[in-house]
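Section: Multi-chain targets

For targets with more than one molecule, the full set of components is provided together so that the structure can be written out for the assembly as a whole rather than chain by chain. Components appear in the order listed by the source. The example entry contains two components.
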Amino acid sequence: MHDHLLSLLIWLPIAAGIAVLLLGERNIVAGRWLALAASLVALALCVPLMRDFDTHTAAMQFIEKAAWIPRFQAYYALGVDGISMPLVVLTALMTIPVVIAGWQVIDKRPAQYYAAFLIMEGLMIGVFSATDALLFYFFWEAMLIPMFLIIGIWGGPRRVYATIKFFLYTFLGSVFMLAALIYMYVKAGNYSIASFQSLPLTLTEQRWIFAAFLLAFAVKVPMWPVHTWLPDAHVEAPTGGSVILAAIMLKMGGYGFLRFSLPIVPDACRELDGLMITLSLIAVIYIGFVALVQQDMKKLIAYSSIAHMGFVTLGAFLVYAIVRTTGITTGAGMGMDGAMVQMVSHGLISGALFLCVGVLYDRMHSRQIADYGGVVNTMPVFAGFMVLFALANTGLPGTSGFVGEFLVILASFKASFWYAALAAVTLILGAGYTLWLVKRVVFGPIANEHVAELHDINGREFLILGVLALAVLLLGVWPEPLLKVMEPSIQHLVSQAAATKIPV
Amino acid sequence: MPDPMMNLHSIAAAIPEIYLTAAICVVLLFEAFVGARRPGATGTLTLFALVIGAALTVVFADVAQPTVLFDGAYIADPLAYLLKLSGFLSVAVALLYSRSYLHNRDILKGEYYVLALSALLGIFVLISANSLLTVYLGVELLALSVYAMVAFDRESGVAAEAAMKYFVLGAIASGMLLYGMSIIYGLTGTLDLDGIAVALVAPHDLGVILGLTFIVVAVAFKLGAVPFHMWLPDVYEGAPTSVTLFIGTAPKIAYFALALRLLAHGLAGTSIDWTAMLTPLAVLTLVVGNAVAIAQSNLKRMLAYSTIANVGFILLGFVAGTPDGYAAALFYTLMYVLVALGSFGVIVLASRKGFEADRLEDYKGLYRRDPLLALAMAMLMFSTAGVPPFVGFWAKLRIFQALWETHHLWLVVIAAAMSVVGAFYYLRVVKLMYFDEPSETLPATEGTFGVRLALGLNAAAVLVLGILPAPLLALCSRVIH
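Its structure, encoded as tokens over all components, is:
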């Protein structure tokens, strides 16, 4: 089974999605259970993936390779290393709350809803496990279609505007990445990501390729100033869509920087790391202020996501500044460690926060902060969860949010005091907007008669929030296993990023 | 030297044309004696004739080596085989989709099928042309049949106007083509494309450039490249949708062959000159086609501009000027035909008696009224936009590759930017079908089980070829090299 574990993880959800679609809206009860079963099986398949993962090597594991398009030397090639494996598991994990969260809530075309999310799951796992650039791009783009439909069909009032904006923004970014990938194919003669990583490129070529990658990945992360699609998409997306968008899709941008930009064009990255760090710090600080003034809960969390993803790009590109300051590559991977932990942790926390907003929205049909107040009085259990996730979002020690931010800030200290000082501002801002949100929504006296009529969360909601809370706490107090899985791959990545590829 | 003892065996390669000529006569006679009593029987007979033709092509025309027949005027090679097979299939599918449309408008007449078959014969002559004379013969046979088809609904004033425009502008294009050919003939003293290829090897000759200019303009006219595209939107919009479906598909194969045989083969020696002429044409075509398509409110007109935009991509394959570029253009053309068959087919099926579903708002909430039609259309639109896992992605990828291999950085950038602009109006169609509610009581869609099955298979082919494109990509490269 290990020979085809990744294929199973990709195609089983897709096959289940098509089956749900074929069962149709009339057999939605069966469809729902099938969707749940498929997402649980996908998570179960992650158990051997994690258990048999060799934490001593940076090489790709669980590799599969089959001829796909012999003419282009493009292969159906899959594999995971310490960077992609945690993200594969995260994807499988986060699909389950999405399926459960939609259980009684989605009454419009539910079969298509489940089908879209299951197909998305398969495609996203495909993105993280493809080791062939063409296959990567295939999954990367194909994923836009279900997300386009998810936002457009089940979204809020301005869903059409939001979804077309989302599609065109990401499509624009990706098309130029495709052009860069083809350029490297013409030079290298095949599409394997590994051969791109060892392909010598002049500085001019690297700058162009860097720009193409930046366009694709910066839109996905999203980085300031190409972030404007995200708040629109989040506000209009249904709860499940927001969860997948925040928890997984944004990670693809970060993953792209780690898998493509740093190892393929290291010299351009070294030259332009100041730009990346500046953009990241703007995202962290400026977007933090923007989050502070939001009136809509989802928008607030969306902006908070952008700020937190700023930490990911900051951590990833700190490596050059650290090498410049300290002169050695040892310890330069700390920023990347932080970036990776931050990605996993933000996946859990932002997903959970969007689920919390979803719980409130299902009852009140409003996301405006002003419509709430004193929720703790009527929904004490829910309030407990919401406060926990909010604190995790601010980076409270003991939660996963702390580990990632701490590592990145520590690494930025190594690079420059001012980076660290500016990055640390986010701790204050993050606490500001998150806790103020909690104060206005959860605490205080009961604001109106609608809040007074609220019922606390049911077993279904308790289950999903509880599991996510456990994961957040576990990762917060014991991040060691995750760090150990990543260690060899991050070391390898640091050596790739620190090397030069300019042909002599 | 042509073989004076041309025996039956060597003629076998020309079986598709010979068979088709015979089939036209049979269908014509059948219509005259039986057609009036049994409307629709001629259509069934034609479909059978096309299927048998495809089978005969597979048996006889699958030549391993290029075979030149009829004193060098005709060539049968693997490329011609692939194109003719695609021609048979696309005409068969187009006629299958249009049947109920024709019936509802009382234009289900046998002559329609005769015209379609003679257009197909023109396509075949063009595909196998190996001399300037054969090229012209094919161009005219195809064009004259198609003019008549556009005017087929004689009650319709718009259609008559479209036919008139098409005829006048088409005649100008034919004149240009003839004039260019006469100059080339005057310079080389031969009509034979092989002979011309041998004679014209030096680029930048003023006389050759003059002749070339007229030929390039004529090819651009036929393909619908900007600024010679004016006829295309009017004809697409004015013609009965079944005819739009016809002229939007199989003739594209023929005009691809026209460009390939004339420019890439006969005038290969001057490729520096004609790629320099095609480059601005291709860029203009891409930009104008995509930009103007956004402003359309009529779906047929929007797809007409989308055709123009796609022609821009096909031209880019020629601009690369390498066998790989031609293979990319061939793949793109075949994919375009497949997608155009489906998308115009959807318009045909969504129309009813007295109701042309050609405005964009007629597609609001199509998902509710007809899930299959909406799903097929959505897949076709995503495919044309170039989004994987659909086959349109590979078509664009192939063009990008050919351009990179020949170091056309700016063309790659423009083409990439234009595919994003294109995505917008394709997405708008999906948006109308899936996100909007039906605004008024629109009539139910058309189509018997068989037709709907064909449309479903058409859309499925776009997906399957998108996931496993390797065989077709390899085939396109093989027949060009």
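The radius of gyration of chain A is 22 Å.
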